[in-house]
Amino acid sequence: MHMTHRTISRRALITSSAASVGLAALGASTTAWSQAKGAARKIILGQSVPLTGVASEIGIAFAGGAKLYMDSFNGRKNNPGYTFELRQVDDGYSPAKASENAKKLLADGADLLFGFVGTASSDAVAAIAQKEGAIFFAPFAASDTLRDAAHASVFHVRPSMFDEAFKMVRHCATLGQSRIAVVAEDDAMGRAGLDAVQKALADQKLPPLVGSAFVPVNSDKVDAAVAAIAKLQPQAIIQASLFNSTAAFIRKLRKTGYGGAFLNFSVVGIDPLFTALGKEIGGVVVSQVVPSPKSSATPIVKEYLAAIDTSDQTPSYESLEGFIAAKTLAEAVRRAGKGADRATMQRTMASMTDFDIGGFRINLRPGLRDSIRAIDLVTITPDGKVVR
Cβ of 79: how many Cβ atoms within 10 Å? Predict the structure, then answer.
């Protein structure tokens, strides 16, 4: 199946940032999650994502999926007594802007921070959430350090980078590929990916990397890395990078005569990678942390596809992940009960360690090895079909 994004309106994703009257910022009061008796309860979610810049294709899709679920939830006839307001703002994939947005969203009345995109952004926002006494829910591409006990207010919908690395490394070992190299973007995400692969190799008692190289973030300036990696003669290369630099590296390394494997973390963005590589994507492996957005036999995907039919969006892995994150949050709010405060919400989320969201299981407080979650390794044929 050929999956591409239609352009999702940025205006449709960015909601008003005006504060809701009577709703204090999270952490300022133990009753921050509830309003006056008889008043309609509104839960405000603050989300900052790259709607412009190098990762906008990923940010727009992820944010679009989250908005798709919340719009569907708010439009139900049998409302449970509360609604969600999803305030989405652009950070251009800048950690400094994401931090600024997080502070403003909380100051303007957001009850929690939701679905920020990017490793450096997530690290910075987790520190803000901790300082402000806020919950940080469903970061996309967060570093594995946010999974330890020191970050008890951070809750993850996706598995760790270590889990993805473990699956890719084991796949290589099964094929007898012991000479593995890593190509990573020169940023927090790339370094987290490199660290995850090194740990996965050590965990499985496999030979260490034959080498690694860094490339600029989502850039085609990869010649130095191509030259360095080509000399190492690896059998497989694991890439921790966004789609532009990933595509440029694959294309240029193949021109040197390299015929080995390319494997990628899910953060690469499978749809924009296909757009960037076209028919040259044949044989490239991509880790995926949610079901295929075309697998209608899976209940959560069926629900997603029904919602997307009434929108201007096209199914994608990133959009589905946003939809799943939003639905998981709604379930946590339901379980916490009416009038729940932040402490109750945090306890409720911490207890959701094996939640079936519809044929797909989620552990909100996973460690580095999350056995509940399935990670798929998929390949893409030159005509755009995804094959498991």
Answer: 12
